[in-house]
Structures are given as structure tokens and as C-alpha cells.
């Protein structure tokens, strides 16, 4: 990338140095392209790509046609730099929060350097909520871009109702999140109506844009409605029911996540009657099934839940009778490679470093730069080393390059003053930040002040963008994350508030790895969304270490009067994965295409996709309980293929549970 990045920055510097007069196309080619041993057509294509790269990071290159002389290219300073936003402390916090909602995604790359530029003169704060909302959605960025421009697209889609893969043509309106799943909504060009598609069921590896004539006859009907209501779309996708009481007999001292939010209302002969409420019948039934014969629904308070549990047990038992008829194909190891930033994001970050250092008088400490741009020391050194060759073309402008020492602290950059202040936002940056700000009100525990700050900042950004570059069109809501955790919102709210107040919290917690319920004091640092669940990263005072706790396994959570200093606690952004050791149970499961995307939350080590879209995956579980819980959440849709001894153990567990349930109702 170094050669292309150097050339793109040289183009930027040539135009900045020329000021309002601009530079002719022939001048630009003489400086940057004529020495290339390629055809004139190839040089023109390269010039076009370089202009597109600058536009992609928010630098507007304008073209002035000249009928007498050569065409002129110019960068208008009034359109280059962001106007002063005068951010309040609350708005700065909201800005950092908006970025943290896109952890480990290309959207985060697009807005990280933008955030550093926008807050160049402000202190950096650690967001209290982070979200890995789209780490597995490789098509999200392309779909967002298509929805922003309402570009018709084509993709391969596997429906729930059939096993065949079909071609869909769609004019996308928006991308939204509901129940921790991503969807794209738009106008189906083949069925001439609004449709919603789940991203995890799109089989295509890329999204194919269609020519504009694909809209012929549907131009008006297919456009996003003026009063498009994303809340109404979400309502259609809702599955939650009203709270329902459950009474379940548990054997004494049986550890279970059910206990952490249950009241014991009765006991007899080694059994305890637990009372709790639930909204999702399948989730409640799966938690009961996972305990096998150690849990029995009390039918005196209703039979619906008991019947659902019995049905699920029978389905699982029958699916694991004898040897599986399925043959396991060759599995491919799941690569856990780190996502790399794209070339445009790297250029944007490095130019952002120049702008921020200039904003601070030409010098800034390495620690502050690492913190502002979210990079480590190696990346910072690599960036600075590459930037030594940036600036005006060296062949024609000796001494016109940046002057800096890649290893010095503080970092001083001279001869780079042409980029005098933070420049405007590109369309992806604006879209990512504003959509993140729009999602802030959905975070459990967010205050009215924080909601107002997010809304006021979004308004300021839209106004600023309209002032310098109206073509970005930041007004239409395109991306709609949702950070609600349903019945876990109450606990999440307490943990989030404690993190903001820097207060210690006492929690009761069910550990799936140990199978025990414990009470402990924690220092909550950040609420995190990942793999369809809510988590809290916290310093655990019991283990004296940084730990990650799942919100739905947390029972009581009460804020104490004791404060802690969050700056003394390290916080990583590592991917959240279940803790398993050498004694873990390794299995190969088969999941139908309908629910195969759910398997990703169990972090498979190897997978293979069959011709019918179903999935074979190798998973590891510390005990049989969470494995049985997976089978119960998707009865008949997920089965164990190998090893046979685990299949037999599951059959025996479910058979014993069925007998126990039957005898309890006699």
C-alpha cells in the first residue's frame, strides 16, 4: 500500500499547496503519473481511483472545466474543514459511545479516525458500553452503502420455508437490528412489495449492484417512503410475550442459571420449588430441559410450560437414538485472524494523526496518539515511518516532505501544516457516527441527559455536514442498531449506571464453567454486546482479575456506596468466547440451514456447509448442561453427530428426564 498511499497524499498536498487557483490536469500528471511505465488509459484510471480514494475519506476534489486551457482541479477549504462544533462534555462522551457500538467492524475503522479528528482538542474518555454487533456480518458495509444510495442489488438467499437458494433483487431502504439479528428491509423488485431479509440467510459472498434500468416501471413505488418507520418494522419482528409465572421443582443444591433470579417458595424431600417469571417460553423451557431429571415443572400452576418441556425432551431423545445416519464431511478450521484495516482507513488514520498533531501545535505524546486512534505502539511506529515519505512529490519538490522522527516522544511533525485542522466527514464516517448516536437511547441505563446529548450532537453533525458537503446526505436514517436486552434490561441498567458512577456492585452470578452460584463484588468497567448476549467487563475483587460476566446469568445486582478508580484497571477489546479447558467435551453437531447462524455464538473450531445449506460444526462444552441447552433451544434443528458416547449420554439424560416428568404427574 505504501506507494499508492504516498501518491494519494502527494495528490492531496499538490492541491492544498495550490490553494484556490488549483492545478491543471497536465500539471498533476507531470508530477505524479507521467513517469509510470503504463498506457495513457491506465494513468487516467489511476488518477480517477486516487480522486475516489480522497473522496472516500472526506476530501472533496472539485473539477472546473476550462474551455480555453486545461481542466483545473481544486480543493475548496470551505468544504474541506469541519466547522467548529463547540461540543459539550456530554456530547463528547456520546461521540465516543457512538464509535464503541461498532467494535471490530469495518464501520469502526471508518469512524475511528473521524472521532479522533473531531475531538482533537478534547480529552479522551473510555466508553461505558461497547458492542461487537456485526463482527460476522461481512456484507453489512456493502448493504449499508447500497441502502444509503438506494441502489438496486442482487443476492442469493435461502428462505426458511424451503431448502433451495433463490435469487432476490432488492432496492434496500435500511439495515436494522432486532433480537440481536441483522436484517435488510426494502422493495422486492420481483414480488413488487416491501420485504425483510435476514442477513445471516444471504448465501452470496458479495452483493451485486444492478443497473438503474432494473427499477424500470417501479421507480416511484420502490423508493424509500417519506415517512419510513423503523419502529413499525421492529414491531413486526417482535417475539416477546407478556411476563408469565413459572414454578419449577429443582433438586436441592442443583446449580442453574434459573436460580439466580428465582425465589424459593417451597421445599420437600430434597426438592425446592423455584418461582420466576419469563417472557420467552422456548428459552425458559430450554433452561429447564438442560437440567434433565433435576428439574420438573409444577403443573398445579399451569401445564403449557410443562408440555413444552416434555415435547422438547422427546424430540431430543428421538434425534439421538442409536447411531447418526449423517456422514461428516471434511471440516475446515475456523480462522481467528485479526481484521485488518483497509487502505483508505489507514490513509485516513495517518492523515488524522497529522491533523491532530497540528491542532496541538505540532507535537503530541505517543500515549495520547495511541489512545485517540485506538492503536498500539507498533502500529503507531509503522504509521509514522511511512509518513516520512509523504508530502509533495520528492522529485520536483525537494524538501517538501513531512519531517518527523518515527520513534520520538512526543511526536513532532513539521512541514505538514497544509492540513491545518480536522477535515470534514466522509459519507461512511457520518453514517456510522450518526447511526451510533441514534442507538444510544436503546442502551439500558442511559440517562435523559445522555439521550439529549446524543440527539443534539446528531443535529450539530447533520448541520455541519450540510454546510460543507450536502451530498453526504446525513439525514436519512440507514443503519439502526438495537441494544435492548429484553428481560435482561433491568440488570444491565444497574451495571451500566454503576460503570458510569464508578461504584462497586454486589452481584449473584451463575458460572457455567464451575456450575456454581456465587456472590461477589465487582468494579464494572464496560457493558458489552457480543454473540447475541449482553456482558459486563469488570474487575472481580474475588479473583483480583479482569473478568467477563454474562448479564443473563446475573441475578441480583446492587450498587454499593464504595467508589473505584477505573483508570487503574486494564480493559481489552478481545473477542468474547466461552472458557473451556482440556477436559471439555468436544462434539460435531449438525444444524439445519434455518438456524445455522446461531452456531456462531458457540465459537466453532471447524465447520463445513453442506449442499442444502446446513452446517456441520465442531464445538466444545465444559459440561453436558450447556450442550443440552443448545439442543433444547433448537429442538430437532441441532443434533449431535459424533462422538457416539455423547449421543448415548444425551439419549439417556433425556429418557431419564421424560420418566421423571411422567412420574411427577401421576
Provide a concise account of the structure shown:
The chain is of the alpha+beta class and 666 residues long. Helix content is 34%, strand content 23%.
Structure, explained:
With 666 residues, the chain is of the alpha+beta class. Among the domains are: 140-237; 486-568, SH3 type barrels (Roll). It has 18 helices and 26 strands. Strands 4, 18, 19, 20, 21 and 22 form a 6-stranded mixed sheet that branches. Strands 5, 6, 7, 8, 9 and 17 form a 6-stranded mixed sheet that branches. The chain has a 5-stranded antiparallel sheet with strand order 14-24-25-23-26. The mean pLDDT is 84.
Helix/sheet category:
alpha+beta
* β-sheet strand percentage: 15-25%
The geometry reads as: globular
Distinct helical segment count: 18
**What is the averaged pLDDT score?**
84
How many angstroms separate the termini?
74 Å
Bin the helical content. 25-40%
Major sheet, described briefly?
A: 6 strands, mixed
Number of DSSP-assigned strands: 26
Q: How large is the radius of gyration?
A: 28 Å
Low-confidence stretches: none
